[in-house]
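Same chain as my last thread, 405 residues:
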Amino acid sequence: MSEKMVFPNKPVKELVAELNAHLAQIGYRPSSLKTYGGILSKLQDYCAQRNSDSFTMELGQDFVRDCYGMVIGERDKAKNISRAIHMLADFQRFGMVFKQHNVNAKGFSAEYKPLFDGFLESLNKTWLAKETIKTYRSCLFRLENFLITRGVDHFNQLELFHVNTYVESLAGYSKNHISTTLSLLRRLFDYAHNNGFHGTSYSNMLPSVKYTQTSRLPMTFSADEIKCILENIDTHNPKGKRNYAIILIIAKLGLRVSDAIALRFDSIDWQTKTISFQQQKTGVPLTLPLPEDAGWAIINYLKHGRPETTCEHIFVRHKAPFDKLTPNLQKDLQRAVQKAGIRVPADKKFGAHSLRHSIASIMLSQGATLTDISQILGQLDPQVTEGYISLTPSLLRECALEVNF
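reply #2:
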């Protein structure tokens, strides 16, 4: 059994108008209404150009690709755009939108709290990374909102058609998001059944979406391209000096962006020319040699770019309060890549993590072993590193350049 669309054939103009009214009614801020309204207005123009008077998820995907040069679901590059399209699809189908919650500020409802909190606590005892568990918690809020809205006030009221409808609501999301959500549901259903929250586990009835580490490899850059990107970062202003130092560290050492921006003054030993820190994702300590040019870039930022602040982190915000930087360099890196004249395919992921994959590819082309690359990247298992470098022979040949750029 599956639930039917609420507004399947309503003209897109009316559908958008009703969605805007619904968002205002449920308390969306004026700034958010303006942002989403602008995107949906552009969607209406797109539909008119295509002589299409009805909305489908396929049309939404075409809209994002043709008008923004992006793939829907790319969280960093098109967060608001993807959100607007998904809200319209949810409203068309269910007459509602799924809320987005601050996972640190809100707790689960009294009916779902024992199950969901217990489930998350069980995950804390496994090998799953904290960020993965945090993502699962966010997904549980969406699931809770969906079930309560559909009249499932207690988890033991869940039926298979609810599960099927929820899975269908994921249509249009990225394969990574769908795969993550299905993995969560399998674990949740088994936990609920084994701990008396439901008489049946639906885990074996969920569809399978194959999505491996290799499937989500981002774009990689050659050593010459990385050099060109660095040369196109404007270092004539304080923020540019900061971004140059961070991107250079990531490009040279393969650090995760979260680890690069979290470096403290005591992370660097200037006598031994090393960087030492505890990786935020794995919690494992790592010590790496500090390249000379990266060291000078940090010094240049500290002397001529960093604002006066008592923050213990090296890299800080350049707007008050001058505290720890948030891990998002996407726009700054994107500008540098565009200035460098490097073309990024619309269907290829690209961001600071691309630099991490790039250093792995370049090291491999120079004869480094998986163990060597794992140590540089801070990976516990060389098999995990293998996912970073499962590239085509042609791409490996393209990366066969000197790493000393």
